[in-house]
Amino acid sequence: MRYYDLKKEIQGEVLSRIDTQLIWDDIAVSELIEAVIREKSREHYISTIEKLTIKQEIFNAIRRLDLLQELIEDDDITEIMVNGDEAIYYEKEGRIILWDKHFESIEKLEDVIQQIVARANRHVNESSPIVDTGLEDGSRVNVVLRPIAVNGPILTIRKFGKEPITVERLLKLESINEEALELLKKLVIAGYNIFISGSTGSGKTTMLNALANYIPKDERIVTIEDSAELQIQGVENLVKLEVRNANTEGENEVTIRDLIKTSLRMRPNRIIVGEVRGSEAIDMLNALNTGHNGCLSTGHANSVEDMVSRLETMILTGMDIPLPAIRKQIASSIDIIVHLGRLRDKSRRVLEIVEVEEYIDDEIRLNPLYEFIEDSDSADQCWAMEAGEYNAADRLKVRGHLKSTGNRLMNQRKLHAAALKLE
Question: DSSP letters along 170-235, please?
Fold first, then answer.
């Protein structure tokens, strides 16, 4: 009997013996699978390796996320991309790789998707084919079903480490240097409003987590997210808010805008908005302008200037007000923009730290404090390619450093109020 048929027969027998009226824990399910395998081994020869593999795969199919569990448990994998039942890709060390396994059928993939969204008390179906949610370990999940996804269902999982990346880890990875990090530490403690920008996968959430851990532990923090993924450590007075999608009747939706408004009545010292994508930008800036200092947030952009322009656009989607008024609002609300990027060697670096000064002469004046400068010899390097295959061992590292521009921080009022000084 072929391996696939044997596994299918064993799995069917295990499922038929599980009494759904009883609560089965992991140990009980594992013991049942072992018992069925022993019985089948009397009828068919099954090697020791096959027994172990069949047991693990059936257990994952029943109690975990089927064959995706293997990728979930690999700490070196940062992203899992499932394109229907025929192709699974994963990102490892900056490379996107096609896996040699795939789902047995569309139905099996849909079962895994429904298992994921059900655990988070969400729903996804043909009438509501898009959902953002998360796994128990904090990994971010996006699902798009057919007919929206023509070759779907599409499942994307952005994994986060079991332990949050610390500032020490960021320094070791050379994402930032000690001098710039010391500046950001003082700015966070002093209550500067900091916005983190960058492209997809540039490390915005990681940097947000790292900076948030500089917030004094005796302050009250309210976090607002689409799906909870922030990992703030050591803060007891922490309130975590998460949006709620509309039900099947299109009712009872709770948006980020709703959560920002209600957070202002929770007596927060700090408000952290996981990511600003749309009209909620106006509510966030209003919160910053009403005395809530030390707030943090992130947004997608290709540069600091692009982030400012995107904020203007997002505010216009939520409120029809003159552009000069919007720019004044941005300039008076946001103190610092930290821009991150992903370089050609796939490393994530802080590329710019910029002070948002003031609105003058119809534009927002920016004061660059730090910028990433690539070494001249590094700029001449190229990718190591051989016969069309990328070899991770041949990857050429981009060398450079985050350098001070020599400009001084103009607005030091909050630093003085916190009795802090810059070197």
Answer: HHHTTSS-HHHHHHHHHHHHHT--EEEEE-TTSSHHHHHHHHHTTS-TTS-EEEEESS------S-
CA distances to 84, 191, 273, 287, 309 from 333, in Å: 44, 12, 14, 9, 15
> Distance between CA 312 and CA 318 in Å, rounded?
10
Please, are residues 140 and 132 in contact by the beta-carbon 8 Å criterion?
Answer: yes
Alpha helices in 319-423, H assignment, sequence order: 323-333, 376-379, 413-417
Domains of the chain: 1-63 (no CATH), 70-162 (3.30.450.370), 167-417 (3.40.50.300)
Cβ contact 327:312 at 8 Å:
yes
CB atoms within 10 A of CB 240: 13
Three-state DSSP state, 373:
strand
Helices 256-263 and 280-288, axial angle in degrees (round to 10): 20
Other CB atoms within a 10 A radius of the CB of residue 92 amount to 14
CA distance 275 to 158: 15
Amino acid at 127: S
CA separation, residue 176 to residues 144, 171, 181, 348 (Å): 35, 6, 7, 9
Rounded to whole angstroms, the Cα distance separating 118 from 115 reads 5
pLDDT in tens, 381-399: 544 433 344 444 445 678 8
The sign of the torsion formed by the CA atoms of 42, 46, 48, 51 equals: negative
d(CA 258, CA 316): 18
CB 167 within 8 Å of CB 153: no
Residue 248: band (very low, low, confident or very high) from pLDDT cuts 50, 70, 90: low
Distance of CA 259 to the CA centre of its chain: 19
Q: What is the pLDDT of residues 322-346, one digit of tens each?
A: 999 999 999 999 999 999 999 888 8
Instruction: Round to whole Å and give the CA distance between 99 and 122.
Output: 28
- The residues, ordered by sequence, that sit 6+ positions from 84 with a Cβ below 8 Å of its Cβ are 106, 109, 149, 151, 152, 153, 154
CA distance 121 to 242: 12
